[in-house]
Amino acid sequence: MKFGTRLAAVAVALPLALGLAACGGSDGKNSANGSMPSVPVSTETAPTSAPPTTAPPAPVAHLNRVTFLPAMNTALTKQKTWRTTATMTAGGQTIMTITGYQQAKPLAASMTMTGQAFEGKSAKIIVLGSKLYMSMPGATPAGKYLMIDTKVADPAGIGAMVDSADPTKTFKALGIGMKNVKFIGPETVDGVKLDHYELTVDTAAALKTQSKKLPAGTPKTLPYSLWLGADHLVHKMSFDAQGISMVMNMNEYNKPVTITAPPASKIVKR
Hints:
Number of domains: 1
InterPro entries: LolA/LolB/LppX (IPR029046)
Number of helices: 5
Region (Disordered): 29-59
Largest sheet: 12 strands, mixed
Signal peptide: 1-22
Distance between the termini: 15 Å
Keywords: Lipoprotein, Signal
Protein name: LppX_LprAFG lipoprotein
Helix content: 10-25%
Structural class: alpha+beta
Order of helices and strands: HEEHEEEEEEHHEEHEEEE
């Protein structure tokens, strides 16, 4: 497979695995920032000889179109690192699996991709600021990396991919393009009780924030499913677009992560 084709695979994986997966837990202090509102408690005063009684708590408020993204933005500021695993399928077959870690500030990421796009072998991607290191079967010798500084040279628009992986910009795009948020109901995933939401995003509006036009054949809207904990921590996300499905799981938030560039001896030129 040619180098350009592999870059196309990275173009799919990088924004999704880094940007859309960047959702964390919030401190739930107040509803002004999109957190779940505090539950009001009312007390009726009984005669002095009887103890006061407390009214039952009000139902828990779920997130909506107005509060959903502010809550996720607030949650994101609490997360320094996280682990992402993802599986992409098409026609009932797995075409790519992704595992990796991301650091929020400064932006850094390390992920491994395996699948048909890499002839069944594994590719490794490391992002450190504007620099991207890629080790790809058939494009680089085994164990070697190609380094691309997106501020100097930017083949295949990799700089835009890295830029779109910035979680704050991903949220901005989703916020502008979001048409609807629907609470589906509580579900248990991997033994954890979560709230399932469905989002409908205007594709053209979301792309416009990145100065991009809607490619021919792209659906006007894209549905996303997200599963959040009570603290708004995202545990799972999925979507289907043009015959390709992707399921992501996020965990290991705020655990120590060390992401470093490959040594100079492992860097090769194109």
